[in-house]
Amino acid sequence: MEIKHLRTLIAIVDHGSYQKAAEALGYTQSTITIQMQQLEAELRVPLFQRIGRRMSLSQAGEKVVEQARDLVEIADQIGGIADTSQPLTGTLRVDIVETLLCFQMQEVIREFRARAPLVKLILRNRNCLKISENLKEGSCDLGISYRMDWNRDVLQTESLKQQAECILVASSELTDTDFVTPHQVKSIPLISDEPDSLFRRQFESYLQEQDIQLEETIELWSTEAIKRCVMSNLGITFLPRFAVEEELADGRLVELSAPVSGIRNPVLCIKHKNRWTTPAMELFLQLIREHLQENL
User: Fold this and answer.
1) CB atoms within 10 A of CB 78
2) Which CATH number among 1.10.10.10, 2.140.10.10, 3.30.1330.10, 3.40.50.720 corresponds to the domain 1-85?
3) pLDDT reported for residue 295
4) What span, in angstroms and rounded, lies between the C-alpha atoms of 157 and 5?
5) What would the pLDDT profile of 228-287 be if each residue is shown by its tens digit?
6) What is the Cα–Cα distance from 72 to 294, expressed in whole angstroms?
7) What is the distance between the alpha carbons of residues 3 and 262, in angstroms, rounded to a whole number?
8) In this structure, what is the dihedral angle of CA atoms 166, 194, 293, 159, given to the nearest 10 degrees?
9) What is the C-alpha to C-alpha distance for residues 60 and 120, in angstroms, rounded to an integer?
10) Any coiled-coil ranges, and where (predicted)?
11) What distances in angstroms separate CA 86 from CA 136, 246, 280, 285, one per listed residue?
């Protein structure tokens, strides 16, 4: 069994198709097809199944990919023993919560690419719960997230000095700004992202404790879209201060007074306990420690 065949299999899964894997690896699509045929013949199991036009891993393929990631990682680790002076290579898959990815990671990404140009960096926007799932199943190497109830039997977390201060914000045109008095029914929506969002869960828990009922929840999947709707006085939102600091500075948004405003959420770096910290991962972690502001 050749390691390059396992690398190709992993690339197909990570990139979603034979064609995209071929582009990433510098192969022709026919080479990818031949390698997978050879691997299936050697393993005596089909690795993929087609349902209409959609291709997905077979049940056996899912097990093979899980083991293949471990074997490729071990091969890379062994290969790195001989000469640590060689340029960093390989692939680094990092899942990051959207607010950090959009507003805090630009310098980290820019310097990483400058210092490790041969490493293929795959960045994905995921929520805290999905990052945990992806780390446990091995579909990402590193997670940058906020504090959650992480399974520390499987995952290793590093708490950074950085903490994200979350605040309640609204348009300056909003007139009903009392979110302190309990037992209210307010004709204004919460504008937030998906139900698994840490910030949404924190704010909804506060509303429940205070017995404050809002008209509805407008569910969006983009922080920028959320901010635009709030600036148009369509509702309120609860976000990290760094995500709205420009709008607060120029008056398009205002901070509302409420006990929930000011909650701090530590920023965490997370990896699987059994996954070797590659030189590329270590560099990315080093840059995060250096570049993220101490108080977000």
Assistant:
1) 9
2) 1.10.10.10
3) 47
4) 32
5) 999 999 999 999 999 999 999 999 999 999 999 999 998 999 998 878 888 899 999 999
6) 36
7) 50
8) 100
9) 27
10) none
11) 30, 42, 12, 19
Calculate what percentage of the chain has a pLDDT beyond 90.
56
Contacts of 157 (CB under 8 A, 6+ apart): 150, 268, 269, 270
In CATH terms, the fold of domain 163-265 is D-Maltodextrin-Binding Protein; domain 2 (3.40.190)
| CA dist 154 → 148, 150, 265 (Å) | 14, 9, 22
Which among 208, 211, 214, 210 has a CA at the least distance from the CA of 236?
A: 214
pLDDT of the residue at 197: 87
Here the tokens at position 6 are: 């396992």
- Per the rule left: phi > 0, alpha: psi between -120 and 50, beta: everything else, 125 is beta
Kindly report the length of the chain.
Answer: 296
Alpha carbon distance 145, 78 (integer Å): 30
**Quick one: tokens of 178?**
């009392």
Ranges of the chain whose pLDDT falls below 70:
79-85, 148-152, 293-296
Long-range contacts of 290-295 (CB under 8 A, 24+ apart): 291/107, 291/108, 291/111, 292/104, 292/108, 292/160, 292/162, 292/267, 293/104, 293/162, 293/242, 294/161, 294/162, 295/162, 295/163, 295/165
